[in-house]
Design goal:
By secondary structure, this protein is an alpha/beta fold. It is 39% helix and 21% strand. It is rod-shaped.
């Protein structure tokens, strides 16, 4: 009963607005005879005449005017709400949670995320800087960022940054009393600033490659950190050699605040990738986020 009445009231509003059964029928996508029958059925159900019909026009009766004044604002509100939902579909919104190393967050993600948030004010980004290998599924992140070679095979990986190189650097003061290493194996005789694995414990090995030959070295030293920035500060202060992305130290090398060694053993490798579970269903906000971060040569 209620459903039928609502449908009939929509028909009544359309006829009153158009002042014509023919035009209202076109607007509603029904035949003119069917629309006329709908109004007659409504009038019979209510026991009152709602429309005055002449050969030239259709106008509400006094009862019809009274009913229309009561119901039209409600239907207009419903139409507005539905229209807003349609706009929302075309204007992505929601929260995207992402975890990334500090270096990736600052150099790769932030410039694009700032632009994304200005363009899509209804999208909220929650970016957690984490140097560990966070389990994004158990920690309920939408995605994570890592160097490409460290991503699990059951994840979808999307490149978000250029190829990278590492740099082994120490201060001029550090090298005054020590020989410059020529091969990775010679690092065992140097003080090195270790980078701790936050989630798995232990230290990251220093990885090298030259003409297809790969060498991993477990280094030792007086200082260990979980922050690349702290490792750089320690190297600048002469506390040992640091293993850092070369874009973090280029300016210091140019200024001769740091000396680079073993450069021929530091070949480019796949840079940062965004990764997420293959089973993930893309919400509009995540799809926009993914496209904004995708790296283009």
């Amino acid at each position: 009963m209620i459903r039928e009445t609502v449908s009939d009231l929509v028909a009544l509003i359309a006829v009153a607005r158009e002042g014509s059964f023919t035009r209202a029928a076109i607007q509603l996508g029904v035949s003119q005879p069917a629309l006329s029958q709908t109004i007659r059925t409504l009038e019979e159900r209510l026991g009152v005449r709602l429309l005055s019909r002449t050969t030239r026009s259709v106008a509400p009766t006094e009862a019809g005017e009274r009913l229309l004044r009561s119901i039209e604002p409600h239907f207009a509100q419903i139409e507005g709400s539905l229209s807003a939902l349609t706009e929302l579909k075309d204007r992505p919104s929601g929260t995207v949670r992402i975890t990334a190393p500090q270096h990736a967050a600052e150099t790769v993600l932030w410039p694009r995320l700032a632009k994304l948030m200005r363009s899509y004010p209804d999208i909220t980004i929650e970016l957690v800087s984490d140097e560990g290998l966070t389990n994004i599924v158990s920690e309920r992140f939408d995605a994570g960022v890592r160097v490409g070679e460290y991503i699990e095979k059951d994840m979808i990986a999307v490149r978000v940054g250029p190829a990278m190189r590492q740099a082994i650097v120490g201060s001029p003061a550090y090298f005054k009393a020590r020989q410059v290493p020529r091969r990775p194996e010679e690092l065992t005789g140097h003080r090195c600033i270790n980078m701790r694995r936050v989630t798995r414990g232990g230290y990251f090995p220093w990885e090298f490659e030259k003409r297809g030959r790969e060498v991993n070295v477990r280094v030792d030293g007086q200082f260990a950190v979980s922050s690349l920035e702290l490792a750089r500060k320690a190297a600048l202060d002469g506390l040992g050699l640091a293993y850092l992305p070369d874009d973090m130290v280029q300016e210091h090398i140019v200024r001769k605040q740091l000396v680079r060694v073993l450069e021929d053993w530091c070949e480019p490798f796949p840079g940062y990738h965004l990764y997420y579970p293959s089973s993930r269903q893309h919400a509009p906000a995540f799809a926009v986020f993914l496209e904004a971060l995708r790296f283009r040569d």
